[in-house]
Amino acid sequence: MEATVLKAGFDFTGIYGFFDDLLPESLDWLAYVIAAVILGAVLLNAIIISTALYTWFERRVLGRFQSRMGPNRWGPFGLFQPLADLIKLMTKEDTIPEGADRPVFTLAPIVFLVPALLVFSVLPFHSSSFIGKLNVGLIFIIAITSVNTLGVFMAGWASRNKYAMLGAMRGVAMLISYEVPMGLAVVGIALGAGTLSLSGVVLAQNIPFILVMPLGFIVFITAASAEMSRTPFDIIEADSELGAGYNTEYSGIKFALLQLNEFMAPLIVAALVTTLFLSGWRGWGPVPGPIWFVIKSFVIVLLLLWVRATWPRLRVDQIMGFAWKGLFPLAIINIFAMAVEFQVLRDDTTGALTTGDLWIMAAANWIITIVSLAVIANVLGQRKLRRPEPVPSQLANMFADRPAPESATQLSGEVD
Amino acid sequence: MYGLGLAKGLVVTFKNLVMPSRMVAIQYPDRKVGLLGLAKETGTNPLALLFKEPGQALKAMAGMATVSERLPQHARFRGEEFTWYEQRCTGCASCAKYCPLGIIEIVTSESGEQVQEGQKYNIDVFDIDIGRCMFCGLCVEACPYDALHMGSGFEEGTYRRADLVINKERLMKAPKRPSPWFRPQLAAAHFDPHKAKEGQDVEWSDAGRHEQPTLEEQEDKWAKR
Known about the structure:
The complex is a heterodimer. By secondary structure, chain A is an all-alpha fold. Chain A is built from 16 helices and no strands. By secondary structure, chain B is an alpha+beta fold. In chain B, helix 2 packs across helix 4 (54-61) and helix 3 packs across helix 4 (54-61). The termini of chain B are far apart.
């Protein structure tokens, strides 16, 4: 019985097939439900437990980046800290502000969480896709991660709090702006891989796409880290400006859900970047695919943490300018370059690219990346401030015609 | 070059991550140590520790063992407990008179000792309310016989205000580790109360700037003129 499950591989078809054989013909639907529930439970628990561990990891590493210790009191190396946080949040009073839009207020954390969890359902952790072999995986991911924006606005609007409202409004502006370069970066991947299925994207990466289209990688990871709204893009919940932004009024279990989503975001981004740019579960040697996936995701998570620990928050106008004047043109350049190379290099009959073609594209794209980054930086970057000579005000110039008092000249002479 | 500042910032935080010497946090009141740290702290080698105290060693390997850690203080730190030598004290109550807050209470009775020197009193009550003390040290400066010294501790937190009043018994019982603040004779001897171990207390005879006159000396001075 166990052997059958193992042989079938831990994916939907395998488990469904196992229960389908077990149950009579008339109960096919039950086999379907059982398989879905089993896989869903395993996946949800895996994600949520790893998110809980990740909160500990993030706080420890962030502490070390900032010359602090991070949580280290409760349990070995502070490992039980997520548990303590969970108990604390669960036992806190769950308040709803007077005059809040109660249904929307209650629904917002769920609207936050569900899309984040759904992203994992189509990610291939293994050569036999984990849950869904969706043939439009790329579009699904872009669509489902946009729902986050709705959650932000629901939370901010329903709270009946000015800080929450302000945070939600500028957050929505930012999230929608960064959707554009993110989606455009994904177009480059679709061109390179020739498919929209995530398993197909992984299989197409004989060379990891980070080498083939570095520009797409830069645009995607920047836009994605803006999507998860953490420093340097944390204007949604800018602590020093807005209290806590959209989650100002949340407490108890609802706040726990919001926090869960916030800490899950880097994991999602890392998993996405791994799938799209670092050739997913593919690796070398006897190490199994899921392990490769975790290792690559871990590297990306560390990169995101490093950036979070270092760079300060951008101003609202700088963030919007960066999206529309910086990332948007870069994404367009990336698509254009990919399209031209695809048209030139592809096999005329099948439309497929060989590994050799990918290497040629990589060489061309690295040059394009460096040049376009330099150009954009020079357009966007602050020029040397050529300030005009300061014009003294009328008030300061009042005594200009009079000789300076003797004591003053003496004093200045002493200083010199 | 554009972006150089961003890269510099990344380098700084990366150095923080990989260089343990950059972590400046003091883990008051205790610090978690691993097996090596515990061995270093107890002055044994890790293997010996593993055999001698397997419980402690396992705890250390799980990251649960702690050793106490304090912020290093200067020797002249003016601490909360006062050090008082009843042998040196004459009950003149200079400290009480000089205290700007009036929190030192001294009740004395006549003893008939050292009448010629100006009478030494029996001290019945010597209370210092450190709950209201601002540790200015004027009482210590005022003491003509170097009987009162500033202390060296900083962990006198209590649950009741009344416990903050240091009385005579407590002063007599307390370990004699005075702060060398305003006591050049202690500073000259390089006495550091924070490094002094058990039994390295300062005796009353070493605490003053000059010896207390013996009976013969007093007779020489006052009676045999």
